[in-house]
Amino acid sequence: MIIDTTEVQDINSFSRLESLKEVYGIIWVLVPILTLVLGITIGVLVIVWLEREISAGIQQRIGPEYAGPLGVLQALADGTKLLFKENLIPSRGDIRLFSIGPSISVISILVSYSVIPFGYNFVLADINIGVFLWIAISSIAPIGLLMSGYGSNNKYSFLGGLRAAAQSISYEIPLTLCVLSISLLSNSLSTVDIVDAKSKYGFWGWNLWRQPIGFIVFLISSLAECERLPFDLPEAEEELVAGYQTEYSDIKFGLFYVASYLNLLVSSLFVTVLYLGGWNISIPYIFVSELFEINKTCGVFGTTIGILITLAKTYLFLFVSITTRWTLPRLRMDQLLNLGWKFLLPISLGNLLLTTSFRLFSL
């Protein structure tokens, strides 16, 4: 049997072309994910720097100023230092739970960023149940804290893990009810549809004005979910040394540190998406329709404007969270649970019933 040389060359070139297409396909799948991870990393570094500068201003002292200009590289220096620390493991602890716990906390929060729209058609995964996917995934993070506390073979750590689980359950229910109220008003669980629902009304179309009670409950619940002061009972240093992270060192301790700021950033982004109009310009459509259409253009300029607007609203909420940390004292554990079960849960449930009634009568 005689095979033509040109046919063999054509077959080889075709197979190479197909393999190159597969490689390009994999690259185009990974590029958005890596871009999002890079943006999140930069965002966390900015939050750490802002918190130190704002805290220094509130306490009338000088913040970080030597690591880079104005101390912007201080968080990067701290992370590099943690990479070279010794990895200490409790001799009688559960090594598997001890090692897996920090990773679960970080990964569960990172996945939540996939459903956040940073601009018009600029979202990694626009799915129909975006907000509930965030709630479902974020509820996995306290399991990692509980595993870390149990695997440390330390009473302080285990108590901190139990507090984290109890706190998450207590405040996740009011938070979910507030999200459900927003979904009823927008007729969708998609984060993109929620932003688009009343976008043409600008500032007056924000869900903040239609759901003021839900906004306050969501604000308090999100701070409790992030375990920020005055809700940082799982790691209260006066009571539990450092809570679930008492036995940790090196980069595992750094993962807990990063997870807390990742959770704070994702909560701030969801406040922006659900209540503050997302990427939309805050000027009503009827006044300047041309300006309103800027961030709906598909070009780089329109996308950049949308991202900047989203980040501006997000960091405004972050400023409120950071200021709250140095303003309010820490609650007791019984006060924290009473606030969640006896106040926020009935209020959020009543808000949901009012929203449902409004939707029924408006049909």
Q: What pattern of helices and strands is seen along the backbone?
A: HHHHHHHHHHHHHH
What fraction of residues sit in β-strands? under 5%
The termini sit apart by 77 Å
Q: Can you count the helices?
A: 14
The total strand number stands at: 0
Shape: globular
User: What does the radius of gyration come to?
Assistant: 24 Å
Question: How many independent structural domains?
Answer: 2
Helical content stands at: 55-70%
Sheet with the most strands, sense and barrel status = none
Structural class: mainly alpha
Average pLDDT, all residues: 82
Low-pLDDT sequence parts = none
What order do the helices and strands come in, and which of them pair?
Blueprint: H1 5-58, H2 74-83, H3 95-112, H4 130-138, H5 141-151, H6 155-186, H7 191-196, H8 207-210, H9 212-225, H10 237-240, H11 250-275, H12 289-292, H13 300-325, H14 333-362
Helix pairs in contact: 1-11, 1-13, 2-11, 3-4, 3-5, 3-11, 5-6, 6-9, 6-14, 9-11, 9-14, 11-13
Structure description:
It contains 14 helices and no strands. The protein has 363 residues and is mainly alpha-helical. The termini are far apart. The chain is globular, with a radius of gyration of 24 Å.
List the keywords.
about 375 residues, mainly alpha, 14 helices, about 0% strand
